[in-house]
Amino acid sequence: MNHLIAPSILAADFANLQRDVEMMNNSQADWMHIDIMDGMFVPNISFGFPVMKAVKKYATKPLDVHLMIVDPDRYLKAFADAGAYSITVHYETCPHLHRTVQAIKELGCKASVAINPHTNTLLLKDIIADLDMVLVMSVNPGFGAQKFIEHTYTKITEVKEMSALTNPHLNVEVDGGVDISNISRLMAAGANVFVAGNSVFSAANQTEAIAQLKNAK
């Protein structure tokens, strides 16, 4: 399975957002990752529908929307209407997870569930067959440029093993501290979708940084 690269708009230059979106359009990026934070589930606030709609206006790549918010069910339709291709909700914020996943699919979006670094992968056992993707957080969510948590490799392997019988085509995404130094090992563990923020947008040549991640083996 070829791996996908999803640069994180959270790390982009918001004063030149159209420029950075067009850079991603013209790069080997597969998706654009959009982190939505509410200042409650995570200790940060990012942006909402106006910025997402502005990104959608110029984006030619699918929008991979990551909801780091409490009670995400309130906003699923709004994010679908704003152009989301995939919607990720956190296991930790959804007491009725099956209902939430079905609601995402009924809106025509891919359904994904994220787990924080401390969340046991076994908690996904009863939902994994219904998902299009699992997002394994390799940092604590809320801020970019954090140090990668090494236990992530084990968690990825556990998710892949769990999905082998019931959902072998499940995408496994990793978000946090992904760069050229660890992407090969992450692929070997079983991940195939990679969110890259600081490693792309802090690079002198952002297009080349994306290409290096895309062409990693």
TrEMBL record:
Entry binding sites for a divalent metal cation: 33, 35, 66, 175
Protein name in the entry: Ribulose-phosphate 3-epimerase
GO terms for MF: D-ribulose-phosphate 3-epimerase activity; metal ion binding
Protein's job: Catalyzes the reversible epimerization of D-ribulose 5-phosphate to D-xylulose 5-phosphate.
Signal peptide: none
Stored CDD domains: RPE (cd00429)
Keyword Transcription: no
Pathway the protein acts in: Carbohydrate degradation
Any one GO BP annotation for this protein: pentose-phosphate shunt
HAMAP family recorded: RPE
Family: Belongs to the ribulose-phosphate 3-epimerase family.
Active-site residues per Swiss-Prot or TrEMBL entry: 35 (proton acceptor), 175 (proton donor)
Cofactor note: Binds 1 divalent metal cation per subunit.
E.C. code: 5.1.3.1
Keyword Magnesium: no
Keyword vocabulary terms for this entry: Carbohydrate metabolism, Cobalt, Isomerase, Manganese, Metal-binding, Zinc
Entries under InterPro entries matching the protein: Aldolase_TIM (IPR013785), Ribul_P_3_epim (IPR026019), Ribul_P_3_epim-like (IPR000056), RibuloseP-bd_barrel (IPR011060)
Positions of transmembrane segments: none
One GO term describing the cellular component: cytoplasm
Enzyme class, spelled out: isomerase
Catalytic activity: D-ribulose 5-phosphate = D-xylulose 5-phosphate
Coiled coil regions in record: none
Amino-acid positions noted as binding substrate in the UniProt annotation, renumbered to this chain: 8, 66, 175-177
